[in-house]
């Protein structure tokens, strides 16, 4: 029995796709990160970033935290900060779904909404300017090594273990890039032949949680050498696959998970054999007010 909610972060299920691919020599496994207590893969990074900052003495119980987010990281940070009794302000574009805003507030966070036209970049600028006053500690998930190290310590080892060391390809959507950086680092240490595939949106496509960053906003934790290949997915493809995951596989997830699964299926169709793992990064219930499932 595990008596702590924090002990429920990680060790998420790895389930085999039953409908998405036809080749019997290729297995596609979907890692259900929505099973984390905060509902997404970001619980791992949020916990490691806050816990490590406390352990180093970078922050204490009197610190005020601030972070820009597009959704899942904010929810995870709100949950973890609440557990540690820390004050946190989360900054996000005003067009974020109401479910995400309300969930952060439910965990006790202050939520500041920035102009939608400026996107997450504007939210990042706002948080950075406020942190320069010296009154706030900015988590800075985009440059925080404790982000990717969370996946080096947990996500990578879980995939290696749960595929019986047989994984050949790992597919992940890229936002802050923490998931793919940490998982790649671990898996490559086990077997350098494992192929790491990142997923980005096509030009002019908007997929929540996946970004093709302008150079000046590229996450500092990102190392392109740790990604063997990038597959671009359109928002239409991502939406169709997200709906298909729910209807055909019983996996209720968000659009970035559909993007990752769409790229994974495309990859599987190229392979003669292999064991492919794709990250399903969150749950679909935080997108119900959008047009994702209409």
Count of the domains: 2
Instruction: Please state the overall shape, judged from the principal axes of the Cα atoms.
Output: globular
Helical amount: 25-40%
- For the record, the CATH architecture of the largest domain stands as 3-Layer(aba) Sandwich
User: What is the CA-atom radius of gyration, in angstroms?
Assistant: 18 Å
Major beta sheet, strand line-up: 1-2-10-7-8-9
Q: Structural class of the helices, strands and pairings?
A: alpha/beta
By DSSP (H or I, 4+ residues per run), the number of helices equals 9
Order of helices and strands: EEHEHEHEHEHHEHEEHHE
Q: What's the level 1 CATH class of the largest domain?
A: Alpha Beta
Pfam families: PALP
Family: Belongs to the cysteine synthase/cystathionine beta-synthase family.
Cofactor: pyridoxal 5'-phosphate
Catalytic activity: O-acetyl-L-serine + hydrogen sulfide = L-cysteine + acetate
Brief rundown of the structure:
By secondary structure, this protein is an alpha/beta fold.
Describe this structure as you would to a colleague.
This protein is an alpha/beta fold. It folds into two domains: 5-35 and 151-287, Rossmann fold, CATH 3.40.50; 42-138, Rossmann fold. 37% of the residues lie in helices and 18% in strands. It is built from nine helices and ten strands. The strands form two sheets. Strands 1-2-10-7-8-9 form a six-stranded mixed beta sheet. Strands 5-4-3-6 form a four-stranded parallel beta sheet, with helices on both faces. Strand 3 (64-68), helix 2 (72-83) and strand 4 form a beta-alpha-beta unit. It is globular and about 55 Å long. The chain starts with 13 loop residues before the first strand and ends in a 14-residue tail after the last strand.
């Amino acid at each position: 029995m595990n008596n702590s909610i924090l002990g429920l972060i990680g060790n998420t299920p790895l389930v085999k796709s039953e409908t998405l691919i036809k080749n019997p020599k290729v297995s596609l496994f979907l890692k259900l990160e929505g099973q984390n207590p905060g509902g997404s893969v970001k619980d791992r990074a949020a916990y490691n970033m806050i816990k490590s900052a406390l352990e180093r003495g970078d922050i204490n119980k009197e610190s005020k935290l601030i972070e820009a987010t597009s959704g899942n990281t904010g929810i995870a940070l709100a949950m973890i900060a609440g557990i540690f009794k820390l004050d946190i302000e989360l900054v996000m574009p005003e067009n974020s779904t109401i479910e995400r805003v309300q969930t952060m507030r439910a965990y006790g966070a202050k939520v500041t909404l920035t102009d939608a036209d400026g996107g997450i970049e504007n939210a990042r600028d706002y948080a950075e300017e406020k942190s320069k006053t010296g009154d706030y500690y900015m988590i800075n998930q985009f440059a925080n090594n404790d982000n990717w190290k969370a996946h080096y310590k947990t996500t990578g080892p879980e995939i290696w273990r749960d595929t019986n060391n047989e994984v050949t390809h790992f597919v992940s959507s890229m936002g802050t890039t923490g998931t793919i950086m940490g998982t790649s680092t671990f898996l490559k240490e086990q077997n350098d032949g494992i192929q790491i595939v990142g997923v980005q949106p096509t030009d002019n496509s908007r997929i929540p949680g996946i970004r093709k960053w302008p150079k000046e906003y590229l996450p500092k934790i990102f190392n392109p050498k740790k990604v063997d290949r990038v597959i671009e997915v359109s928002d239409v493809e991502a939406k169709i696959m997200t709906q298909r995951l729910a209807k055909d596989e019983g996996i209720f997830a968000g659009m970035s998970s559909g993007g990752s699964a769409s790229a994974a299926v495309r990859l599987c169709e190229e392979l003669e054999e292999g064991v492919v793992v794709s990250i399903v990064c969150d749950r679909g219930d935080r997108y119900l007010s959008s047009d994702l499932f209409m």
